[in-house]
Amino acid sequence: MLQVYGNPTPDAKNLALYRKAKESSLIGNPWGALGHAYNAIDGNTDSNYNHGSCTTTETEENPWWRLDLLDKYTVTSITITNRGDCCSERINGAEIHIGNSLLDNRNGNPLAGVISGIPGGFSKTFKFEKGIPGCYVNVFLPGYNLSVMLCEFEVFGYPTLHVHPKAPPQCGGTPCLSYDGLKASWYSKLSVPTQLLHQQCAHKVPCTISFTLPC
């Protein structure tokens, strides 16, 4: 993992912008503007917490912040803007996890890197040369009496293409739409016409198709 200070390529698309974010807890008034998980993906890198564009959890054991990209992507870099008006050291030691698992509030996904530190008010980019697939990106801070603070969290990458495994060679009259336990409704997202899939089954040809599964 390569760590670089500064902003990402200007023309790169921020995949995190206005997606879904959640955190282990919210400090302060839930009806106020401060501290909410979605503040970190609003496109605003203002690092002053009191301006309403940073997220902060309660001080607790093992706090975390989570981003749901709403689809599967291969993540090539992440840029994090740290709080600038206070407490910049609180991000030290936080882990970045990326993957598709739902276990342990998504904190059980593969470890992509550890944040050793980000100066207050600065942005730091973490680059993953091989890319890491997943639709969940977590910032997890292991330990006691800790809080996760983020003033902007940007994710860059590209959609992950999934090749469905081949159906059994002998379809035996069973539609391909039902094999492997997949829901037929998912096939509405395919670029392959439904009738073509049935034709493949009728001719006992393995069905091999590419598509992206929803997260």
Helix count, per DSSP? 1
- Mean pLDDT equals 79
Global morphology: globular
Strand content: 25-35%
Radius of gyration: 21 Å
Number of strands: 11
Structural class, please? mainly beta
Q: Roughly what percent helix? A: under 10%
Listing every helix as H and every strand as E from the N terminus to the C terminus, the arrangement reads EEEEEEEEEEHE
Q: Any low-confidence stretches, pLDDT <50, length ≥5?
A: 166-213
First-residue to last-residue Cα separation: 25 Å
Q: Which sheet architecture does the biggest sheet show? A: 7 strands, antiparallel
Write a structural description.
The chain has 215 residues and is mainly beta. The chain has one helix and eleven strands. The strands form three sheets. Strands 1, 2, 4, 5, 6, 7 and 9 form a seven-stranded antiparallel sheet that branches. The protein has a two-stranded antiparallel ribbon with strand order 3-8. A two-stranded antiparallel ribbon has the order 10-11. The longest helix is centred in the last third of the chain and has 9 residues, at 194-202. It is globular, with a radius of gyration of 21 Å. The two termini are 25 Å apart. The relative contact order is 0.21. Mean pLDDT is 79; it is low at 166-213.
Keywords:
single chain, 215 residues, mainly beta, 11 strands, 33% strand, globular
Task: Give the structure's gist in a few sentences.
The chain contains one helix and eleven strands.
Secondary-structure map:
Elements: E1 2-5, E2 20-23, E3 55-56, E4 64-81, E5 94-99, E6 111-115, E7 123-140, E8 149-150, E9 152-159, E10 162-163, H1 194-202, E11 210-211
Antiparallel strand pairs: 1-7, 2-4, 3-8, 4-7, 4-9, 5-6, 5-7, 10-11
